[in-house]
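Holo model, nicotinamide-adenine-dinucleotide. Inputs:
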Amino acid sequence: MTENLHSIARTITLLQPTRIEIGAGAITRLGEWAKEFKRIFVVAMPSTAGFVDRACLVGDVVTYVDIPPEPDLPAVDAVLAAARAFRPDLVIGLGGGSVMDVAKLVAVLWDAEQSVLDVVGVGKVNGRRTALAQVPTTSGTGSEAGIRSLVTAPDTLAKMAVESAFMLADLAVLDPELTYTVPAAVTAATGVDALAHCVEAFTNIKAHPVIDGYATLGITLVGRFLARAVADGTDTEARTGMMMASYFGGLCLGPVNTAGGHALAYPLGTRLKLPHGLANAIIFPHVLAFNASARPEKSEIIARLLGLPGSAKADTLFGEGFAFCEVLGLDLHLAHYGAREQDLRGWAEEAFAIKRLIDNNPRPLAVTDILSIYQNAL
Ligand SMILES: NC(=O)c1ccc[n+]([C@@H]2O[C@H](COP(=O)([O-])OP(=O)(O)OC[C@H]3O[C@@H](n4cnc5c(N)ncnc54)[C@H](O)[C@@H]3O)[C@@H](O)[C@H]2O)c1
Ligand SMILES: [Fe+2]
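Output:
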């Protein structure tokens, strides 16, 4: 069974944006591409709205800046109402994963009969109406590469996933200069998110040799460039490397997806209100070590590509993975974010219930395993 899943003969579908502009200053090419559009709706945040001018857009341009981090349903409904009033023929997502995920929904829903709740799940979107360009300003989610959007449910605070090929971008612009202003702590956390996408796809039970190629490229780039990007936000080479790593991580999410790491991170994000990247960084070394016995060769490759000196034995890998994140300035102790021992069992049950990811993990994760990982992370 596992052998078959690993086979190169397994069929996968790989989707990518139609066109990708890459490099320092690439955002100036957005205006040239967008010339044919007359009504342009830019989705942004206060921290990213200032980049609109660099895109040299012509026509009627409206910039909506009210997207909160980890957007919830009311936030998405509000931007949809603004888009309906404007009637765009091009939607641009200019921001991190929070913004790009919303831009996808605006592109498919502003002119549709369907609501956000109607399209939660896989393949529920009826049809794509509006052109979409995605311009990431963080290097982490790889959302610009993919077909998923995550929206927080206001009542349960759980993430609802919408997946549709209609949400794929026509254009992605990977301009590292847009990430110069990302604070060091956000650079570190989002960078480990990109790494986690690559590592969880690489060690996944659904791993595929084609996706392994993107995953190892991404891991290599994180090993070479994340610490540099954290140390000097204007290091163009490092910022470019991380933007590519994030993109490759996004490609891994489509046909393979993440596994135990992301499943364990989600309750932390929800319950402790941690940003997605930080929740993943806290979990990363624990799951890397937990999975080592099930994927010894791949764990050794990951360690080598990240420049970790030791072997792929679980305890060595844990110590080195932990140190890798810690030198980036990340605080990986759950208690420092308000977690208490008595919370952990409930969270472990929640993580275990995310079967679409837990079932992808190369080593089975029981509730007791998850609980002991959370206890170790406390
Ligand atoms: N679609 C997917 O496949 C996918 C994958 C992973 C995560 N996500 C989702 O993406 C969201 C997280 O995205 P993220 O990690 O990119 O964070 P984010 O978009 O929430 O941004 C994090 C913070 O960085 C700030 N910021 C963004 N760009 C900046 C810049 N250039 N300069 C200064 N500050 C800047 C933002 O204002 C925000 O405060 C979550 O909602 C998560 O669920 C989606
Ligand atoms: Fe992620």
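The longest strand covers residues 90-95. The pocket of nicotinamide-adenine-dinucleotide (ligand 1) is lined by residues 45, 47-48, 69-70, 95-99, 101, 137-138, 140-141, 143, 146, 148-150, 159, 178-179, 181-182, 186, 190, 193, 253, 276-277 (CB under 6 Å).
Archived with the compound record.
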